[in-house]
Amino acid sequence: MASEDPLQEELTCPICLELFAEPRVLPCQHSFCTGCLQRIAAPKENKPVRRGRSRKNQNKTEEKALEFECPTCKETVSLKERVIQSLPRNFHLQNITDSFQKSRNSEGKRKRDSESGSEKKKARPLMCSVHQDQPLDVYCVSCRRPVCAACVRDGDHKDHTTGDIQAAYDTVRHTVRESLALLEGRSKNMTWSLEKLKRSEEKIKHSAKSLEQSIKDQCSNLKKVVDRQEQALIAQTKAAKTRYLQRQKEMLSVYKNKHEALTKELELAKHHLENKQPVNFLMDVQALQQKLADLQKSQETCDVLFPHTSLSKCVDFRPTLQTLQGMELSHDSSSAELTIRASICLVDFRTGPAGKRRYSSAVVWQELEWRLLIENKLSTVNGGQKRFLSVFLQCLGRTDSQGAWSLTVATQLRILPQEARGQMFQKWLRHRYDSQHANKGWSEFIALEELEKPGCGLVNDGRVILEAFVKL
Predict the structure, then answer these.
(1) What per-residue string of b and e applies to 223-234 under the rule 16 or more CB within 10 Å gives b?
(2) Angle value at C-alpha 294, between 290 and 300, nearest 5 degrees
(3) In this structure, which of 156, 277, 430, 467 has its CB flanked by the most CB atoms within 10 Å?
């Protein structure tokens, strides 16, 4: 035990380096704790007695004196009684040690009492700036600030509502604490949001890379017309990647700045909250509360809207490839059948305005140009508003735009299942198309809520595949 007190060093056992406990004196006049001497003087285990050894020699070994060296001067100490308790107790050293211990305890208590008294002396009341001999010991509720009794009795705060300053301190401090707790929660949410934004950047890059590779693999087996479409799709993907990453960068910068500003204000507010002087705290709390209220209002609309990290929702190459394959087959004028397919995102129809339209790619069949028309329709059902998908087979007329034309066909409009348990949804119609009647189908083909029922199996990743099977 290292100590700057010389007396404490003299009262310290050289073995355990603690204050003496039951010290005993060796013949060399060095003192040690009883317990310490017992540990260093413990005899080693006796070796087993060999056969044939005489009982007399064995008794001599057992009666041998206990011997050990003094830890300080290395002088050999021999105890015939073989017990440490046979050494004399150093009562004088024990009494000095006990007195020193009591003195040190008393000194520590006086030091703590002195520090407590100094803190109390520092807590001097603030005086009124108008009545300088009066302390600020009353809280004016009307003005929301501490005042003195003279201000309430004869001054500017006469007839105002007043209250106990300690009660006001507790109430306002509780309000500020609640505001801080709310903002701290928002700060944690923003920290989590910033981390998620950073992680999503790599996902966007990985998704773009995977999508480009998938497009290349799917388009590699098509003809030159498909090669041109491939390049166009890759260009769209790269443009979407650029837009997404730019949006990501902008959002990351905005929320990083907001988070840094919020963190700075929180630190200032916490520092003010540590003020244990009611008057000082209440003098400045109005500005603090106003700043916290402004921060809460500014943070109410700063929830992070995470961008989609999958680019397949904005660049879907599968319907295009299917349409191109269908166009290659549909150029045969002798074919009696036609299949048109379109893939749409339900998010646009669920939240978009009524009347929003989507079209499939046009297909030439029987010297006429055909395509699917899908529309978002809002209808009134049982007194409430309900969204439907409207699906029509649309004939755009002759490709050469010459002469009158007409064609009667049977059409099956259907939604293809995308899960093993799903069942195809379909409706049939037969109609004669001409220049006056070019759109035929259903304005209420299927309700969105029916399409999105769990277990329906018609929706995958928010998309549905519609198909028109046409035959003469």
Answers:
(1) eeebeebbeebb
(2) 145
(3) 467
